Amino acid sequence: EADLTESVITAFNGDDARALIKVVGGDTTFLDYIGSFGTAPVSGAWDVAGVTDATANHTLTRKRAVTSGNANWTLSAGTNTADSEWIVHDQNTWAYLGTHTMTDPNPLSEGFESGAIPDNWTVINNDGNANSWGAHGNSFYAHTGDYFARVYLNPQGSDDWLITPRLEVASGDSIVFWAKSSSNSPADLEDFNVKVSTTTNNSVTAFTATIGSVSGASNTWTRYAYALESYAGQEEVYIALQCVTVNGFYLYVDDF
């Protein structure tokens, strides 16, 4: 339940940021954002899902696969219909008012709490050095729980793959996980790709589609979500996280 305490929130013209905030005592938590606080849009409003000025004179609805807020507006807005959390409709689209129908956004649930990479996952050390993906226990560094997965640097350039088990993808599914760079040095931030195979999980050459590419991942835990709608109905889909950092430090991932 939310109470409207002042009318200005409803006077939204598309170029003012709006946030959903939870305040408990002296603690303030930003749960969700529309727009970027302190930074005006380049034109009249913010672009969303590749639509120019989408936050003005349009109706925005969250995708069914989105089940929580996102305080990172850049990731939430996205740059196209695939990576955005939003669907941009014509102005005065009323069909979705007051409800949000959700589907399970993630056909997978893995936090590595067994203390090991599960047997039905695949690790490929394609760069051939001594470092590859493994589970690590430290509740201070984990996103949640006590364990997370990580891979250590390769000075010549990492090519380390962490591959999910076989997934059966339904309409509305996304692959969702949290990741971060372990270092706060700009020179050591991690780079990774998110890739898809529809044939096998034991050969990197099978992962011909790239659905995400991150350069210089933040050193704070960040949620990444990639729609799998184009694979809906397929019963053999594998998702790979490919670390490609050159001489970084550790790449951490957790909570698929």
UniProtKB/TrEMBL annotation:
One Pfam family in the UniProt entry: Cleaved_Adhesin
Gene3D superfamilies membership: 2.60.120.200
Coiled coil ranges: none
Domain Cleaved adhesin: start-end pairs: 107-209
Protein name as catalogued: Cleaved adhesin domain-containing protein
Organism: marine metagenome
